[in-house]
Amino acid sequence: MNDPITIRPATASDRPLLRGAIILLQDCERQLHATRLPGEQIADTYLAWIERRAADNGALLVAEIQSIFAGFAAGWVEQDDNVAETVDSNRFGYISDICVMPAYRGQRIALRLINNLEQHLRRAGVTRLRIASLATNATARAAYQRAGFVPYEIIYEKSMRGAG
Questions:
Q1: CB of 23 within 8 A of CB of 36?
Q2: For 9, 20, 43, 95, which has the most beta carbons within 10 A of its beta carbon?
């Protein structure tokens, strides 16, 4: 049986679809947290940024079903200099973005994108893979846990507006 899902590297012709997915992703996150700017406002700059990062020891992947854009993921190798952590913890694969278009959700496309990025980043020599999510994005967190991720660090935030 033929696999209906194709995962492939993004090309220049995918830019309009990637831009639209970034807007969708950003606007969804904006509903979850007030710090997120509108998708339309950041789409071009953000797309250019992930393209640059992915081009440098990473990947920008597109998922398709019957040649129709179903989503994307981007990731690359990060190098930290945390003196309190091991060498392998300071050099890790980072998945910056995953977006599955609404019509294609529930088909484990995010898992397939993660697995493909993991294979790519493993070839770059990393032994750890990290991904972040807004704390209130239960759907993303559940998908990441299904993909084998476990909580690593939790960042707490306190707004000090109006505090005197």
A1: no
A2: 95
Instruction: Count up the domains in the chain and report the number.
Output: 1
What's CA 13's distance to the chain center, in Å?
20
Is residue 78's pLDDT more than 70? Answer: yes
The tens digit of pLDDT for each residue in 5-64 reads 999 999 999 999 999 999 999 999 999 999 999 999 999 999 999 999 999 999 999 999
CB 121 within 8 A of CB 77: yes
According to DSSP H, which parts of the chain are helical? 15-32, 39-55, 87-90, 109-123, 138-146
Structural domain boundaries, residue 69? 5-146
User: From the CA atom positions of the chain, what is the Rg in Å?
Assistant: 16
Short-list 2, 120, 133, 121, CA closest to 64: 2
